[in-house]
Amino acid sequence: xxxxxxxxxxxxxxxxxxxxxxxxxxxxxxxxxxxxxxxxxxxxxxxxxxxxxxxxxxxxxxxxxxxxxxxxxxxxxxxxxxxxxxxxxxxxxxxxxxxxxxxxxxxxxxxxxxxxxxxxxxxxxxxxxxxxxxxxxxxxxxxxxxxxxxxxxxxxxxxxxxxxxxxxxxxxxxxxxxxxxxxxxxxxxxxxxxxxxxxxxx
Length: 202
Hints:
- Keywords: Hydrolase, Metal-binding, Metalloprotease, Protease, Zinc.
- One of its GO terms (biological process) is proteolysis.
- By secondary structure, the protein is α/β, with parallel strands linked by helices.
- It has helices spanning 8-15, 20-28, 31-38, 59-62, 70-75, 101-118, 152-162, and strands at residues 2-4, 51-53, 88-93, 123-126, 139-141, 148-151, 167-174, 177-179, 189-192, 197-201.
- A five-stranded mixed beta sheet has the order 4-3-7-10-9, with helices on both faces. It has a three-stranded mixed beta sheet with strand order 5-6-8. It has a two-stranded antiparallel ribbon with strand order 1-2.
- A hairpin with a 4-residue loop joins strand 9 and strand 10.
- The chain starts with a strand and ends with a strand.
- The model has no long low-confidence stretch (mean pLDDT 87).
């Protein structure tokens, strides 16, 4: 197994910015929030641990991407940012998420709490759960796994139609396998950065 662990200097180069807007935002954080941000620079931090690669088929090896530091991310003209009018994340569950209704509700409650913590400051709202049939999406049975799979692109179209006016984004969640096109075996999720929709399975 290979372990990817960046040095403290590499992290500081990638994360620390002299952009006055970012500096101002950091200075407005309270002591606890600043302490949390500073955890990124501690090599022994439990919050930003090293990435372990188990095989050559791991995503980070088999799908190489150009590096992007925080400054590039922040300055990206296509980056969407919340506004007073668009400040809510909506979660749309599709199909059953557990063996019982109680398990499904507990799972969604946990997911809502996680999103509220991760996307601190945004409101997270739950849309009424819908069966897969309501999406009218294409589907297939995977030849290798024999699992039912639904077309991720069709789910995105469905979510776009359901997106509320105050939504920063709407996220679909399902326990059913997804596929983006016939030539793909499966996909973990898919998103539209322009429409503010995304779909992911478990």
